[in-house]
Design a protein that fits this description.
Blueprint: H1 6-11, H2 13-31, H3 38-44, H4 47-67, H5 74-106, H6 111-118, H7 121-126, H8 131-152, H9 156-172, H10 180-189
Helix pairs in contact: 2-3, 2-4, 5-6, 5-8, 8-9
Length: 190
């Protein structure tokens, strides 16, 4: 019988990220007109699996990094944890996308629109923009809270399972909302 060990995911993290990267690149390639052999095109349908691998490995990384904070000054550690995470995603994002929006403003885009899109709010309202960054910001914000609750409840697996079930039910609800902006936010969460 094969035994699953979470440590194996950590041990092969680089390889898993490499596979995930290739799957995501293949997925974006066909949509952008890249010609490739048929067998490679069949891999393009697996790009969402690449995203899932990224999320799984990243989630485990977040968990393990919070585990290392257990010590005397946890609050200071969590502050440093937030700072490290947000610097890691926001500095490259702001450099690359900031340059893009600077050029866009110079070519006539209203500054308010550029700031709206740069903030990633455009993803939650209009389903446009850097969805991965828009998703990471709240995930990073909520991870220490989830970690703390898991350490306090008797059954963290049950708690996490109920949380996942709740999110699946909320995502599965398909009810109309009067506000188009609110409906777009609900569609994005689905």
């Amino acid at each position: 019988m094969i035994q699953f060990n979470v440590q194996d995911i950590s041990e092969y993290r680089g390889q898993l990220m490499g596979i995930a990267t290739l799957l995501v690149i293949f997925g974006h390639s066909v949509g952008n007109g890249v010609a490739m052999p048929r067998w490679m095109e069949s891999l393009c349908g697996l790009s969402s699996v690449g995203v899932d691998i990224f999320l799984l490995v990243s989630g485990l990384g977040l968990w393990y990094s919070l585990t290392s904070l257990n010590g005397n000054n946890v609050q200071q550690g969590v502050r440093c944890w937030y700072l490290r995470r947000y610097k890691r995603i926001l500095i490259p994002y702001l450099i690359i996308i900031g340059f893009h929006y600077t050029l866009s403003v110079l070519h006539g885009m209203p500054i308010s629109q550029a700031l709206f899109e740069l903030s990633t709010l455009s993803y939650w309202v209009n389903h446009q923009g850097a969805w991965f960054i828009a998703m990471l910001i709240p995930v990073y914000a909520l991870t220490p809270l989830h970690y703390r609750i898991c350490n306090k409840v008797k059954s963290p697996v049950l708690y996490s399972s109920l949380l996942i079930a709740f999110m699946v039910v909320i995502s599965a609800l398909n009810y109309p909302v009067e506000s188009t902006g609110c409906q777009m936010v609900i569609d994005n969460v689905k």
